Amino acid sequence: MDLITQYDIPFLHPLAVHFPLVLLLLGAASAGLYLLLGRAVWRQAGLVLFLLGTLGAWAAAETGHDLKNAVEGDPMVELVVERHESGAEWTLWMSALATFLFALVSAAQLRLPRRVPTADAADAAAPAPTPRRTREPLWGRLLVLLPALAAAALVAWTAHLGGLMVWGVPR
Description:
By secondary structure, the chain is mainly α. It is about 75% helix and about 0% strand. The longest helix is centred in the middle third of the chain and has 37 residues, at about 75-110. The two termini are about 35 Å apart. The mean pLDDT is about 90.
């Protein structure tokens, strides 16, 4: 146990980067399921995942500045760091856009009137039929899909560049 206590991780960036990676990829999967199934639960999941993923992307970007300054001069870092930083910025903006659009579609869903079947006077004695589960409108499902997929692609690319800086070796 002594060996473990002799070391620490001086930067938070390596710890912070994994959260937005997972959250934004899961958020994109939720957007895909929302498109296919049209259920509110997938829209709500996408909103929560993208909100948390965007906050995580912001934290990862902020913690990356200190690490960048500490590793200046490393040849592999010098080759890739600007692209990595640019990818992080694009990821943050695209995930924020996806979060905004998920919230917009969610707000629109709250305002849309629900279609509830009405009983005729002759059927007044009969129990009211239970409303059929319907898909949410296609416009909302399509609206969130593209930025969600773009954010997932950007976070994957940015993570790949970060991995190259840490683990990359020439072929």
